[in-house]
Design brief:
With 763 residues, this protein is an alpha/beta fold. Helices cover 31% and strands 19% of the residues.
């Protein structure tokens, strides 16, 4: 059932055309709303903060500072600076420090929606009964804010999705694993019988899972985590399976009851602890929650993705591969967020889980790490800051992450974690759990409300695109770096252009071309040199994805939505749909679920994505015979890789992955989007840890000079930005040379958004 969004505006009567355009955009997405207008920032802010339903608050650019300040004061929350807004502002920052602070401010637990230049960005945060959204109704600014994710979030708020039961989620997870086809051994230790019983309830399980009833003896000095990991590994080897899994008995500690689960291949293991909420918790709920957690891990672990030489997609999710672990506080924060991320919305099971902390066990050592695609909240909250002093915030505030520290996390995280973990930048994720807010309304200056008669939207969820990879702890020879034992206090400053690997179609470039009037054919032929768009007379009616046969319309709609969202221009949506079809054709219409994003819950009927897909399939309805458009190169389907955004030009597949099999991916294609530029600083100690971890993983000895300035040196780059800056082709780390994308992806673990960068060392 759809819900009405309450639009609460400030001085809208003076900006009728902008307000009308905003209303039309909501109506076009099928969002129902009511409308109220206020004359003063105080009345506006008080009513917004006391609302008990989802609210879209908006104002003009002229009222932005006063309205945002009044609103944050009314929320009575601590406030910090948003990293994503600051990154978007870049060179557009206001001269006045107080104005800069207000534009960058974000309430605790909030999510930022940056505008194209960062100025007048929007945000959302939870309130009693719903979500508060804030933005300007200036037509140009509102368009970029809505496109940055707010429209999708509004649609989700207006059309709450019915949550799946634990049984449904478990079943889907196991079916996906079966579809992947890898053989998996189940260790006979611990809660072996409940695990086998649960898995064997899903048809076709015996094709993949191999129960191993033998039980390994636990060593006297082995921790629970080590033992669980070893059981998984030994069962995998004994049954000659590709993977092994294990689940422990219920264990009690000072923290309460918990179960340890583990997934292992021949060289690595990934583990997690799932805690009961109390010592009186029903054991079956804890076991059920642990089985689901194990299957989630197994799904991630077994779908290893395509090799680097054919890495096609860098999706738009802003989630890191390995979380920031530079301090125990950060580790504690992340543990808390994993608990929310892993178990939210699993009916009764959500009540049974107190905390889940993931570990990586390497070669029998008690080596803890926090891994997975869970990011810190976008709110960057200094300890001593309150809403009352936003204008006085100093520029020296450090980005420290949220202070909402989980009290259930171990206080005894070892120093090993700090010395071995790789750091990345915190990025936006969903809002934190809601806090108390006033319940009394103050609508004394409100004008009469009005209600639209538009139909409910059909979209059920926000677009969520993730670039994820399993963090590995592979065995390696005793090798590494030879470097000074302590840092020198210096740092590298990276100025990074674009987002993603830079090969093929830039999604933001496609959107920009569509806005400028280009057709999807123009877009595709621009990004895939020498290719042409043709009609496939042999279009199948379904495509196999993850082992399942999916009708072609459904497949393309849910893939397109997951990759580029539903609010992009129609021609950009068509270009993305053709890329998805061409990629499936390239793989002979049998695509592993690890190859690209797919949103199974997207209700696509009647959406802009649906219309775009029907158009490129040459269909007026799903009952028609499909005749799909695809990207052709010399009579065969092209390898249509794509990425988020470029610095103005694309780069070549050869420079990124090596080889010369893709003459249509030679780079240098013009991409007309406004470049996204971000600045990242990496200290000497951080860089040393990155290089040491990479050397160990690769089994290499990398020699570092006594002068850290010589540790990282660019050898060659293209001219994607200008003659002095472009995508880095080769770069030296110490005396070892790697490709630029390898440096960005595997040395720095995605800390920088692309390998198009310039860098400066500051001693």
């Amino acid at each position: 059932m759809s819900e009405i969004i309450n639009i609460i505006a400030l001085n809208a009567e003076n900006n009728e055309s902008d307000i009308s355009e905003l209303k039309h955009k909501l109506e076009a997405e099928g969002i129902e709303y009511s409308f109220m207008d206020f004359d003063s920032p105080e009345g506006f802010a008080s009513t917004v903060a006391s609302a008990d339903k989802t609210v879209l608050s908006c104002c003009s650019k002229e009222d932005f500072s006063a309205a945002k300040l009044a609103l944050i004061n009314s929320l009575s929350r601590r406030v910090g600076k948003s990293a994503s807004i600051i990154a978007a502002m870049d060179c557009n920052t206001p001269d006045e420090q107080s104005e800069y602070n207000i534009h960058a401010a974000l309430p605790e637990g909030g999510t930022a929606y940056p505008s194209s230049d960062g100025m007048y960005s929007g945000f959302s945060c939870p309130i009693d009964g719903g979500t508060l959204f804030f933005m300007t109704y200036d037509s140009k600014t509102s368009a970029s804010v809505l496109e940055s994710g707010m429209m999708a979030a509004l649609k989700k708020a207006a059309n709450p999705v019915e949550k799946k039961t634990a049984v449904e989620e478990f079943r889907e997870c196991v079916e996906g694993i079966i579809g992947n086809g890898k053989t998996i051994a189940i260790a006979g230790s611990g809660s072996f019988k409940p695990l086998v019983s649960a898995i064997s309830s899903v048809p076709g399980w015996e094709k993949v899972f191999r129960p191993d009833s033998t039980v390994a003896e636990r060593g006297s000095k082995e921790t629970n985590e080590e033992y669980c990991a070893r059981c998984a590994k030994e069962s995998k080897e004994a049954s000659e399976s590709e993977l092994g899994i294990s689940i422990s008995d219920i264990t009690e500690s000072d923290e309460g009851k918990f179960i340890t689960v583990s997934v292992a291949d021949s060289i690595r293991a990934k583990g997690a602890k799932v805690f009961a909420k109390s010592k009186d918790e029903d054991p079956m709920l804890l076991i059920s929650a642990s089985v689901i957690k194990l299957c989630e891990m197994l799904d991630e672990f077994s779908l290893t993705g395509i090799p680097d030489e054919e890495a096609p997609f860098e999706k738009k999710s802003r989630l890191p591969i390995i979380i920031v672990l530079s301090a125990i506080i950060a580790a504690m924060i992340i543990c808390g967020f994993i608990a929310v991320k892993s178990f939210a919305g699993r009916d009764k099971l959500s009540a049974s889980v107190k905390n889940s902390s993931e570990t990586a066990v390497e070669d029998g050592n008690d080596f803890f790490n926090l891994i997975g695609g869970v990011g810190l909240d976008d709110s960057e909250i200094p300890e001593e800051t309150s809403a009352e002093n936003i204008p006085a915030l100093a520029t020296v505030l450090e980005i420290t992450g949220t202070s909402a520290i989980s009290t259930t996390v171990k206080e005894t995280i070892t120093a090993t974690l700090l010395s071995t973990a790789k750091a990345t930048t915190a990025v936006p994720t969903t809002a934190a759990p809601k806090t108390d807010a006033p319940t009394t309304a103050a609508a004394t200056t409100a004008k009469a409300p009005e209600t639209s008669g538009s139909a409910a939207t059909t979209a059920k969820e926000t677009a969520s695109k993730s670039t994820t990879a399993a963090a590995t702890t592979a065995k390696a020879p005793e090798s590494g770096t030879k470097a000074p034992s302590s840092g020198t206090g210096g740092k590298w400053i990276f100025r990074v252009y674009g987002w993603g690997h830079g090969v093929g179609m830039s999604q933001e470039g496609a959107i920009a071309m569509a806005k400028n009037g280009s057709s999807y054919v123009d877009i595709l032929e621009n990004f895939y040199t020498g290719c042409s768009v043709k009609t496939d007379s042999g279009t199948p009616k379904s495509i196999t994805y993850g082992g399942k046969s999916i009708p072609i319309v459904e497949y393309l709609c849910r893939t397109t939505y997951a990759e580029i969202g539903a609010t992009s221009q129609p021609e950009a949506l068509k270009a993305q749909a053709v890329c998805a079809y061409t990629f499936a054709k390239y793989y002979k219409f049998n695509v592993a679920s690890s190859k690209h994003a797919y949103k199974s819950s997207f209700d696509y009927k009647g959406t802009a994505v649906y219309n775009a897909v029907l158009a490129v399939l040459g269909m007026s309805s799903e009952s028609d015979t499909p005749k799909a458009k695809y990207v052709d190169y010399n009579g065969s389907a092209a390898f249509t890789c794509y990425f988020d955004s470029s610095p103005g030009k694309t780069t070549s597949a050869t420079s990124v992955w090596g080889g010369g099999n893709y003459p249509y991916l030679t780079g240098g294609n013009i991409s007309p989007e406004e470049p996204r530029i971000t600045t990242v600083e990496i200290t000497v100690d951080q860089m040393k840890n990155y290089i040491q971890s990479y050397a160990k993983e690769k089994g290499k000895t990398i020699n570092l000079d006594s002068n850290p300035e010589n540790w990282v040196r660019i050898e060659s780059h293209d001219s994607a930005v200008n003659s002095t800056t472009g995508y880095v082709e080769y770069i030296y780390i110490g005396d070892y040379k790697v490709r630029g994308n390898e440096f960005r992806s595997n040395v720095l673990d995605m800390k920088i958004r692309s390998h198009c960068f310039s860098m400066e060392y500051v001693a």
